[in-house]
Recover the amino acids of this structure.
């Protein structure tokens, strides 16, 4: 996205220069010390070959606020991607930014180079897709006008219009997916060391075209990992096609994967491209690969080896360039022993293995995930954040979560639906609830305070260093101390109460 520029607005020159110094090797940067200067830069570059495609604004701008500025930018330049920099856990600011300014993302300070680079790249891709979308609309309008003037070829013209409409719908679908997914790593919420190791594996595998096999229990986020690999790879602008092998009838799997010609079987009334053809130059994600029938495993092996196949009912070879990512909750080596899975196919798929731990092995992520899903569904439902019963987190920590992160999200969504001002405990089976003597209802700030106290007790009051609270919470020690002071947490008293 070298042709698009990034604008950073901050009233502190030191912050501006720091932003430029760190990120200028990745992006073309424009700096502004005031909203007026920012608007002038956007207008100046808009008609050029290198327009500003993304605006980053600090929330605190002297007499102004980042939200006010981004809201005004959105009114004048609706295609621009907007990112807000905020202080730690300014939840009210974040909600207002989403509702009022329509921001693409809010990022807490201090920001980190690697994650910010990922966010900016994704934001520029969204801007690019919006521009392409607008171009398609203009092409469609112009072509429609031309076609209406050609009465002698009206039928053919209408067919071309329909084709353009379908192309536009596909572009819209991909745009919605890009915006709703919001990730390379954005929806993978974790402080777990094992999961952070998986982030490194994602980045490593994204630089290759090798097959990746993702294993883990149901609901651990295997599709999120597959999409993150695709979005970080050189194929990110090509299709990401998902197939659930368990959901397709065995008699339709070959047609779905490899396509068919007209008349190949009863009901084949026209030619149909398979998912491998559609995924050309992109990535195909075969979920629940352990459910693929043996009869189709040989054909998949051939595609992996030769990158070619024939449609059902045809002898014509079709060559494709596709990266294959697979996932399963089964033990494939055990399936090989049971003669349910081909050993040679397993080794072709398992070039780069990634195993995801179940939620019960990363319980330190529960508070983060609960916060994330509450905020997510509050935005979706356009409602205020509910109060959180003090018993809820303990109850969740004592629950086994057979459905892992997906089950936790479903529980929180259900609670947001049935609850009003207080998040309901009825989402957890009573036999699985933890016992606690605390019955008070905590607002979010109290919920956060209680969580920080638990972390400090876990680290025995240590803030800095390898096993310090700041490291566990992924924030600067100075930021943590400031937050403790604001919440009235006294370190000596907290550790003394252990």
């Amino acid at each position: 996205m070298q042709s698009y520029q990034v604008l950073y607005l901050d009233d502190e020159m030191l912050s501006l220069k720091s932003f430029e110094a760190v990120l200028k090797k990745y992006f073309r940067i424009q700096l502004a010390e005031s909203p007026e200067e920012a608007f002038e830069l956007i207008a100046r570059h808009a008609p050029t070959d290198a327009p500003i495609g993304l605006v980053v604004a600090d929330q605190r701008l002297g007499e102004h606020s980042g939200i006010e500025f981004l809201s005004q930018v959105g009114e004048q330049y609706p295609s621009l991607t907007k990112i807000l920099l905020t202080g730690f856990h300014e939840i009210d600011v974040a909600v207002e930014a989403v509702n009022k300014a329509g921001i693409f993302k809010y990022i807490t300070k201090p920001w980190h180079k690697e994650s910010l680079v990922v966010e900016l790249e994704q934001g520029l891709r969204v801007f690019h897709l919006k521009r392409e979308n607008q171009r398609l609309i203009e092409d469609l309008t112009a072509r429609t006008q031309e076609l209406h003037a050609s009465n002698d070829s009206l039928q053919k013209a209408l067919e071309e219009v329909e084709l353009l409409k379908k192309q536009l719908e596909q572009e819209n679908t991909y745009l919605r997916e890009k915006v709703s997914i919001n990730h390379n790593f954005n929806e993978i919420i974790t402080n777990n060391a094992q999961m952070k190791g998986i982030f490194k594996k994602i980045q490593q595998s994204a630089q290759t075209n090798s097959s990746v096999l993702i294993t883990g229990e149901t609901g651990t986020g295997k599709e999120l990992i597959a999409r993150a690999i695709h979005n970080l790879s050189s194929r990110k602008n090509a299709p990401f096609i998902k197939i659930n092998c368990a959901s397709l009838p065995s008699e339709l799997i070959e047609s779905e994967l490899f396509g068919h010609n007209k008349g190949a079987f009863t009901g084949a009334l026209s030619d149909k491209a398979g998912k491998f053809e559609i995924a050309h130059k992109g990535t195909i994600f075969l979920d629940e690969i352990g459910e693929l029938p043996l009869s189709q495993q040989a054909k998949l092996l051939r595609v992996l080896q030769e990158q070619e196949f024939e449609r059902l009912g045809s002898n014509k070879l079709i060559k494709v360039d596709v990266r294959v990512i697979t996932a399963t909750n089964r033990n494939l080596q055990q399936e090989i022993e049971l003669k349910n899975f081909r050993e040679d196919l397993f080794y072709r798929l398992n070039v780069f293995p990634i195993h995801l731990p179940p939620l019960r092995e990363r319980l330190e992520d529960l508070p983060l995930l609960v916060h994330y899903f509450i905020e997510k569904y509050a935005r979706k439902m356009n409602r205020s954040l509910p109060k959180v019963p003090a018993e809820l987190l303990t109850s969740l920590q004592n629950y086994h979560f057979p459905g892992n992160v997906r089950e936790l999200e479903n529980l929180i969504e259900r609670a947001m639906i049935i609850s009003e001002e207080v998040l309901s405990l009825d989402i957890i089976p009573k036999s699985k609830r933890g016992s606690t003597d605390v019955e008070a209802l905590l607002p979010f700030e109290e919920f956060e305070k209680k969580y920080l106290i638990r972390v400090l007790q876990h680290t025995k009051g240590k803030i800095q260093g390898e096993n310090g609270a700041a490291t566990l919470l992924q924030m600067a020690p100075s930021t943590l101390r400031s937050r403790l002071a604001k919440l009235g947490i006294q370190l000596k008293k907290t550790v003394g109460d252990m």
DSSP finds 20 helices and 16 strands in the chain. Confidence is low (pLDDT under 50) at residues 174-183, 431-442. Residues 193-357 form a domain with the Rossmann fold fold (CATH 3.40.50.300).
